[in-house]
User: Fold Serine/threonine phosphatase from Pseudonocardia halophobica.
Amino acid sequence: MTRPLPGAASHRVLLVEDDPGDVFLVQELLAEVDPSVRVTVAESVRAVVERNLLPAADCVLLDLNLPGVSGLDGLREVLQADPSAAVCVLTGLDDEHLGIAAVGVGAQDYLVKNKADGAVLIRAIRYAVERRRAEASMVRLREEQLVAAESVRLERGLLPSLLLDGSAVHGRSFYRSGRTRAVIGGDFFDAVRGPSGTVHAIIGDVSGHGPDEAALGALLRVSWRALVLAGVDEPQVLPNLQEVLVSERHERTLFTTVCTLTIDPAPEGGSRVLLRSAGHPPPVSLRPGPVSLRPRVGVPLGVLRDAKWEPEILELTPGWALLLFTDGLIEGRGARPDELLWQEGLIDVLGKERDTPMSELPGRLVEHVERINGGPLADDVAMLLLTDLAGDE
Assistant:
């Protein structure tokens, strides 16, 4: 049972007491110190539970000598009914050991009737409420921390480990979500060695920035990997991926830009690359570049059901390096305040980072772009850096 946190001043007291004289005395003592206190009286713990009085009380003053209960049983029943209740035991028994035991069970304080005047009662009530408030806040904070940590673990689990063992291609990745306190966004990437030895790679961007788009991006990435590893013919991968998008998207207007590569060794050395683009920014060839590739660009996935994505065949020389990225990298501020960085600005940045080792390039590239932007980039940023092992650093 979750109790709303009370305000700064507590004015709702539930007095559980069966002696009319003691009821009158407690009411008078409280009224002398704070006339705004509202006291509700119940003659037994059973009445408290049956009348559901605990949710409306900021503090409970509980007599231990009540009909139907003995010792600390009444306190246990109250706390069982509402573990978040702030309970002060108020009894005629001046027993230090009983008081310690009551606090151990869950009471906030132990008060002896003939030693508690109005000021003592009011102070005990307010302290009890504030302690319970602090405890509730700590519990909620801990719960939020556990949920956040679990979300981080789940999201990290959705980021891929590139499956390139046994191939002549080395892959490095970079990912940063544009959502606050999130690990993944709607951008996704992956690279795997297929059953025939061909290396397949993808980078994509689901339109939108919420958790639903992040989940959809993760689903598309996993679906793409399943299609590739199942040996689906390369021309059928994007049409199948579009079917997944259309069936799983939560809004009909959502679309996804994608760029895919298949990489095979070329007979004369180097590699032969088949590239398809569905509305996605083109990759950049870093060697001997940097220079943007110019593939045929089709419409994004999810726009036209009968869309075609024509391939572009590229011949790469030994030692090649390709950078695939999402548009979050190039949509920050450019060198001129009134212009975005765009592809041309990225080429300039890559030229300045020409001597940066490939192992450091993705992180250095983001740092460089953020300096130009004047601060962190607002959108998700994903990068996939693929290099020929023959010329890798």
Observations:
- The chain has nine helices and 16 strands.
- Residues 1-9 have pLDDT under 50 and may be disordered.
